[in-house]
Amino acid sequence: MFIPLLGLKGKRSQILHFAWKNVKIRYRGSYLGLLWTALEPILYFVFLYIVFTNIRLGVKEDFGIYLITGIVLYHTFVKGTQGGLGSLKENVGILSSINLRREFFPVVSTVTSSIMLLVEVGVLFALMPVFGFTPSWTIVLLIPILILLQILILGLSYLLSITLVFIKDIQPLWSVFVHALIFVTPIFWYVEDMGGIALEIQKINPLGQLIEMAHKVVFGELPTVNEWLYSTAIIFAILFIGYGIFQKFEKGIVERI
Fold first, then answer.
1. Which residues of 52-85 are buried (b: 16+ CB within 10 A; e: fewer)?
2. How far apart are CA 9 and CA 158, in angstroms?
3. pLDDT for res 95
4. Is a pLDDT exceeding 60 seen at residue 190?
5. CB–CB of 157/83 below 8 Å?
6. Which of 19, 46, 163, 199 is in Cβ range 3.0-4.6 Å of 111 for a Cys bridge?
7. Cα dihedral sign for 69, 159, 16, 33?
8. Per-residue pLDDT at 157
9. Cα separation of 101 and 186, whole Å?
């Protein structure tokens, strides 16, 4: 069955149950608990905002909103893919005792990131009046952009989770990769100000494309048809490639883990 999610038809309630359980486990034992879902991107934002408004030349009007928009998508991508990476390994006990499709766990991990994304988007909207920013109607297009982000996370979660079963080194490598990604993704810099290798990477970076589209719709500009088509095509390609590889190697993963 080569269509992602089709094999999990009828498992919606179980997926939501496990996803919400993951959210609670993530912050269990901390004093602030689920508040960290909102505080993490806020603290990230405060640090970067202070740094780049003091040392960076060419900061434009409403840089705060520009920055938090990028941080919300980037932070969701990092947490979502890191969760997806360990989704099989961390649930090996359940895999060996309950008859569930292997793809259940990368999907649960992605839904977990979706729940946390809702909180982070709330942070974005909460900061708008703080900065005196009023969005235009185009911000409704943020919804399909965020959906594409979750599809990207799911595709990578399929790929990363099954890779970890066979190549343990992928975990530290991915951690280094996502932290390096912030420097070649338009979060605190503007695409029109960049050149060289950073701009070339941006052209093939699906996360960077989504963040730039998000910037546009938040600031009242419509992304081009080519931007929509390119982002959608590459993200669905990642989804189907990731799922195909996952299906090919999912047998016997309990023994390997």
1. beeeeeebeeebbbbbbbbbbbbbbbbbbbbbbb
2. 17
3. 67
4. yes
5. yes
6. 19
7. negative
8. 95
9. 37
